[in-house]
Write a structure and sequence with these properties.
The chain is α+β, with helices and mostly antiparallel strands. It has a domain at about 80-235. It has six helices and twelve strands. The strands form four sheets. Strands 4-1-6-5 form a four-stranded mixed β-sheet. It is elongated and about 75 Å long. The structure holds zinc ion (2 copies). One zinc ion (ZN) binds near residues 87 and 119. One zinc ion (ZN) binds near residues 28, 43 and 45.
Length: about 240
């Protein structure tokens, strides 16, 4: 049997394999969780590449540009050991700074991590941040796009809550330039957040200074004190889970 006779068949098989693979490929750029499960760690490929695995928690851990998934979350749960930058609350992330994307205008997305958290990236250029004790606080205004995406994106906090990872210790009130939500999280560390002279919260309480929050913040409470004050907003309790 001649090898030449097999060539058309081989070509056909290759094409079939290629199209089958194409149908299942997901594009990524920059470091990202391998699967989304903390135990599976991080993929450190910087340039655009593909995986056959769909991104887990795509709506909250990633932002996309031309179908390329860019991880913008806190890499700590996935065993990240590189340089870290401490942030507090919600802030802009500029995709074309994180990964190489050719654009004329910055592609600005927002991180919705509540309270203190880490990123592998430093605050993006051309955005206003103030630093207090090495923690970055966004000092600009939040545009309509931020508000619009909020109900969907803020669920990132529900995802991370189950992972119980270390966070930067922020034992002081955010600077006045910061206009984002002030929410105590990281119940596994003893953080005493003082905001506007309010008395410090009970150690296992979560202070919510948003009126559109819901009851899932009460998970892990020893008591259900505070339940009452949230109940009256029950009709608004949507979108965070
Ligand atoms: Zn990858
Ligand atoms: Zn962030």
């Amino acid at each position: 049997m001649s090898h030449r006779n097999l060539a058309p068949l081989a070509t056909a098989l290759l094409l079939m394999a290629a199209s089958a693979a194409e149908a299942k490929q997901w594009r990524y750029a920059g470091m990202h969780p391998r699967t989304g499960q903390p135990r599976d760690g991080l993929c450190h490929l910087e340039s655009m590449h593909v995986h056959s695995a769909a991104p887990l928690y795509a709506d909250t851990l990633y932002r996309t540009r031309d179908n390329v998934h860019v991880f913008i979350g806190d890499p700590t749960p996935f065993g990240y050991e590189g340089p870290r930058h401490s942030y507090y609350g919600h802030h802009p992330v500029v995709l074309n700074v994180l990964v190489e994307i050719n654009v004329d205008v910055d592609v600005v997305e927002y991180c919705y991590h509540d309270g203190p958290h880490y990123h592998a990236y430093e605050p993006p250029p051309r955005q206003e941040f103030v630093d207090k004790e090495d923690v970055h606080f966004y000092a600009g205004d939040y545009p309509e796009a931020y508000q619009r995406e909020n109900p969907k994106r803020v669920r990132v906090n529900t995802v991370y809550r189950g992972w119980n990872v270390p966070r930067p210790v922020v034992a002081f009130a955010p600077p006045p330039q910061y206009h984002g939500p002030i929410i105590q999280v990281g119940l596994n560390v003893d953080v005493d957040v003082k905001v506007g002279g309010r008395p410090p919260p009970p150690s296992r309480e979560v202070i919510i200074i948003r009126e559109d929050d819901d009851d899932d913040h009460h998970h892990g409470h020893d008591h259900d004190h505070g339940h009452g004050k949230h109940k009256k907003h029950k009709h608004k309790h949507k979108g965070r889970d």
